Structure to design on (507 residues):
């Protein structure tokens, strides 16, 4: 008995479908649980120790409690009189004999079944046994068919899932390769940013020296004096050159900012590509492991309700569209970078050419201005030499005029002395003779001559002062011209010749 009971228990443990309910690992996520085949309400409370639990056993009949007739929810204390049932007592041969022996003996004689009832009961049991066996056989056949169908359906579903995983791995690998290719191209193109920024920075830095020199030339030319502070072609060329240099630096600064913004955009596109590649590498690892899993793999386990949890954030189309958009953005950024590199080279070359043109125009204007001032200086020097010679001659003439005036003093003295002496004549001798008239005429002539000499002397002295003023003006103008010529030829041209602009503009 004990061995047979142990075999029965072992067999029931090896066959999960013979147990009541489902095994712990197959507990359903939601819905009612599988009802047990042998319920706890049908099992005996005190099974025999030498055999397993039975599904039936004689039980002791107990009296039913008093209940309200109308509604079971009504408490008996609130029920009216006559609405409650009396407690029922079922007869029992053992307990009833003690209370009423005659009634118990009479019940024992008249409570037996008839033979026909016994036969009918046996036929009923046979029929029920046949029905239950047929139903059990049908259930077994249905179970075998269902097991085969479920096995085939499970295998087919697993094969389809594996095929889908393989297709997914192929798609992810394709996009991973596309992203890697685009990432390599973008990284190779992005290496040009350093060279572009270096050229732009060098060009902007190289423009500082020409701008400083042009401003220094304007500052030096402010030191010119007098009429030499003329708004000539050199000053116009310097102002145009300074304006061009400032505009060029502004253009280079805007180009540098544009390069910086494009570099940030390319780095953002590169970050998106790297992030997408990283995610796809991780996905490939996960999908490869999932594709290699089978029924005998290690690490498989139950995850109740995992199929009802949807962690996805995209569909197949949106997933492919996201990768395509990142590749398209990278391609667009590369195209912008190529265009920016071309524009930067064109801009730098154009700026270099314009700087050289304005620099050359200013130098040519300075050369022409230096030649003009040198010629003017030579003419001023020539005029100054002539004025100096004229001053020398005029001074000699003034000396002669003064000497001529002085020479007229003695003849005037002689004539006046004669007149004074003849004024001492007496009597009729004070005659107005021809000698007296001639002496008077002589004195008058000498005075007229002296007056004319003094007039000429004054004119000569006034002209002498005018010549001195002219000489002073010419000397001051000559100094200004010499100073302006020194500024333009030595300071400005010296500064501009010492700076090799033709080497600076070759990028």
């Amino acid at each position: 008995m004990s061995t047979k009971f142990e075999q029965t228990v072992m067999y029931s443990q090896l066959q999960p479908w013979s147990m009541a309910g489902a095994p712990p690992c197959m507990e359903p996520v939601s819905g009612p649980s599988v009802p047990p085949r042998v319920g706890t309400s049908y099992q005996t409370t005190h099974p025999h120790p030498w055999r397993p639990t039975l599904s039936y056993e004689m039980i002791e009949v107990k009296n039913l409690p008093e209940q309200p007739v109308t509604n079971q929810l009504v408490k008996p204390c609130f029920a009216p009189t006559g609405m409650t049932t009396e407690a029922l007592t079922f007869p029992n041969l053992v307990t009833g004999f003690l209370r009423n022996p005659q009634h118990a003996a009479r019940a024992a004689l008249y409570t037996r079944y008839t033979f026909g009832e016994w036969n009918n009961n046996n036929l009923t049991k046979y029929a029920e046994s046949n029905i239950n066996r047929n139903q059990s056989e049908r259930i077994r056949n249905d179970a075998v068919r269902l097991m085969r169908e479920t096995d085939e359906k499970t295998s087919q579903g697993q094969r389809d899932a594996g095929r889908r995983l393989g297709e997914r791995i192929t798609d992810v690998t394709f996009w991973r390769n596309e992203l890697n290719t685009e990432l390599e191209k973008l990284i190779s193109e992005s290496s040009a940013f350093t060279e572009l920024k270096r050229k732009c920075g060098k060009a902007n830095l190289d423009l500082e020296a020409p701008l400083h020199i042009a401003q220094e030339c304007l500052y030096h030319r402010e030191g010119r004096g007098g009429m030499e502070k003329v708004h000539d072609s050199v000053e116009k060329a310097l102002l145009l050159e300074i304006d061009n240099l400032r505009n060029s630096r502004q253009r280079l600064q805007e180009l540098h900012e544009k390069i910086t913004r494009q570099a940030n955009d390319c780095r953002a596109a590169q970050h998106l590509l790297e992030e997408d590649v990283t995610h796809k590498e991780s996905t490939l690892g996960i999908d490869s492991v999932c594709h290699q899993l089978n029924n005998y793999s290690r690490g498989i386990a139950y995850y109740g309700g995992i199929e009802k949890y949807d962690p996805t954030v995209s569909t197949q189309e949106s997933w492919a569209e996201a990768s395509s958009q990142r590749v398209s953005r990278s391609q667009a950024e590369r195209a912008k970078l190529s265009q920016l590199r071309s524009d930067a080279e064109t801009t730098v070359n154009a700026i270099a050419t314009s700087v050289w043109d304005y620099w050359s125009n200013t130098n040519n204007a300075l050369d022409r201005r230096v030649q003009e001032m040198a010629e003017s200086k030579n003419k001023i020097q020539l005029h100054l030499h002539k004025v100096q010679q004229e001053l020398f001659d005029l001074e000699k003439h003034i000396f002669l005029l003064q000497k001529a005036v002085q020479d007229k003093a003695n003849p005037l003295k002689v004539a006046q002395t004669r007149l004074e002496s003849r004024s001492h004549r007496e009597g009729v001798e004070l005659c107005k003779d021809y000698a007296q008239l001639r002496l008077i005429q002589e004195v008058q002539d000498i005075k007229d001559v002296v007056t004319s000499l003094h007039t000429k002397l004054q004119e000569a002295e006034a002209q002498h002062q005018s010549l001195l003023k002219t000489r002073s003006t010419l000397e001051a103008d000559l100094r200004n011209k010499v100073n302006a010529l020194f500024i333009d030829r030595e300071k400005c041209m010296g500064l501009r010749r010492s700076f090799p602009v033709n080497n600076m503009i070759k990028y």
Notes: The mean pLDDT is 80. DSSP finds eleven helices and no strands in the chain.
